[in-house]
C-alpha cells in the first residue's frame, strides 16, 4: 500500500483522507473511489481502482482505530512512524494535518460502529425495458424492470448492484416499499 501511496499527489491524498473522515462521521455515505481514481489517472498517475480501494480501506482502519483510542495527531504520527516506516513524508504530513483538523470530530460510538458494518444504501435508479427477440426466440415482447442500487460498504467504498425483475416482481417490490413508508410514518 505504501508504494501506491507514493504515487498519489498530495492534494488527491488529502482529498481521500478528508472523504474518509467525513464518511466515518456519517456526513457522506461513502467514498467514490471510481471517480477519484479516474481524476488521479487523468493527472497522469498510473493507479488502478483496486489499489486505491486498498489505500482507502487502510486509511479508514487507521482513522477509526485512532478515534477508538483517542489519539492526538502527534500520537498518531508517532505510531505511524514506529509501525509503518515506509510511508512517504507527504502522506504522513497529510494524515497529521487532516487528523488534527477533523479527527477530533470523529465520534465512534458502539451504535455507529455496529451500523457501519452493514453498509449504507445511497441511491436507487430504475428503468423499464422490453426484450424484443433473442437468438433462440424470435418474438419475446417481454417487459422487465432493471434496478441499480448504489451501496456504500463499511469502508465507504461505493458500488453499484443491478438486477432485473419481471413486472409482477416489480409490483411486489413496490408494494413492500409502500408498506415500509407507511410504517416509517408511524415512527
Automatic annotation (TrEMBL):
Molecular-function GO terms, alphabetical: NF-kappaB binding
Residues annotated as domain COMM: 120-187
PROSITE patterns referenced in this protein's UniProt entry, alphabetically: COMM
Superkingdom in the source lineage: Eukaryota
Entry-linked InterPro entries: COMM, COMMD4/6/7/8
Pfam entry (one): COMM_domain
Entry function: Scaffold protein in the commander complex that is essential for endosomal recycling of transmembrane cargos; the commander complex is composed of the CCC subcomplex and the retriever subcomplex. May modulate activity of cullin-RING E3 ubiquitin ligase (CRL) complexes. Down-regulates activation of NF-kappa-B. Inhibits TNF-induced NFKB1 activation.
Family indicated by similarity: Belongs to the COMM domain-containing protein 6 family.
Protein name: COMM domain-containing protein 6
Lineage, broadest ranks: Eukaryota, Metazoa, Chordata, Craniata, Vertebrata
Amino acid at each position: 500500500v505504501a508504494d501506491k501511496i507514493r504515487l498519489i499527489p498530495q492534494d488527491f491524498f488529502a482529498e481521500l483522507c478528508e472523504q474518509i473522515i467525513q464518511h466515518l462521521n456519517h456526513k457522506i455515505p461513502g467514498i467514490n473511489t471510481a471517480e477519484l481514481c479516474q481524476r488521479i489517472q487523468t493527472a497522469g498517475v498510473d493507479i488502478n481502482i483496486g489499489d486505491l480501494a486498498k489505500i482507502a480501506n487502510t486509511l479508514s482502519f487507521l482513522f477509526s482505530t485512532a478515534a477508538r483510542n483517542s489519539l492526538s495527531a502527534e500520537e498518531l504520527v508517532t505510531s505511524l512512524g514506529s509501525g509503518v516506516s515506509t510511508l512517504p513524508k507527504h502522506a504522513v504530513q497529510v494524515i497529521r494535518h487532516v487528523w488534527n483538523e477533523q479527527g477530533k470530530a470523529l465520534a465512534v460510538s458502539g451504535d455507529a460502529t455496529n451500523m457501519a458494518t452493514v453498509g449504507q444504501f445511497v441511491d436507487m435508479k430504475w428503468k423499464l425495458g422490453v426484450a424484443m427477440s433473442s437468438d433462440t426466440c424470435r418474438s419475446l415482447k417481454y417487459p422487465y424492470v432493471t434496478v441499480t442500487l448504489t451501496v456504500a460498504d463499511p469502508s465507504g467504498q461505493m458500488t453499484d448492484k443491478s438486477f432485473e425483475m419481471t413486472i409482477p416482481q416489480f409490483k411486489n417490490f413496490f408494494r413492500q416499499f409502500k408498506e415500509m413508508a407507511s410504517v416509517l410514518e408511524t415512527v
